[in-house]
Write a structure and sequence with these properties.
The chain is mainly alpha-helical. The chain has one domain. Helix content is about 70%, strand content about 0%.
Length: about 130
């Protein structure tokens, strides 16, 4: 089994979110069921990913302004999907070298960056819902 890099894993996740954003509105409309945020349901506070479902479905539906208003970090997720999809296909076809495992330092830096992005997203959501 070949090593799958962190960007590739995030890209796979982004592609899955894009696919779900296409299917989810149809299922939700047909059943009347939605996806509640567990943190917001339990505490009333939005989570760092609050609005990501709405943002993803709005972006897939062609309304980037509404997507940005719901969660501006959806654009990063969309960029990962756009970049990672062809990369995964090229690597799967054997046309590109497999990824090299990241060093411990690189992993730590990316972990900090992701944590800071989550904190920024949460700050945005708290401001959007009037808590800040």
């Amino acid at each position: 089994m070949r090593y799958v890099s962190v960007p590739e894993r995030l890209g796979i996740f982004a592609v899955a979110v894009g696919a779900a954003a296409i299917v989810y509105p149809r299922i939700s409309h047909a059943t009347g069921l939605g996806l509640p945020c567990p943190l917001r349901t339990l505490t009333g506070l939005p989570c760092p990913a609050c609005g990501m479902t709405t943002a993803s479905t709005d972006l897939v539906a062609g309304d980037p302004a509404a997507a940005l208003a719901a969660n501006p970090f959806v654009l990063g997720l969309a960029a990962l999907a756009v970049v990672a999809s062809p990369l995964l296909a090229v690597r799967a076809a054997g046309l590109a070298d497999p990824p090299v495992a990241w060093s411990t330092t690189s992993r730590r830096r990316v972990s900090w960056a992701v944590g800071l992005l989550a904190l920024a997203s949460w700050s945005y959501q708290l401001h959007r819902f009037g808590y800040l």
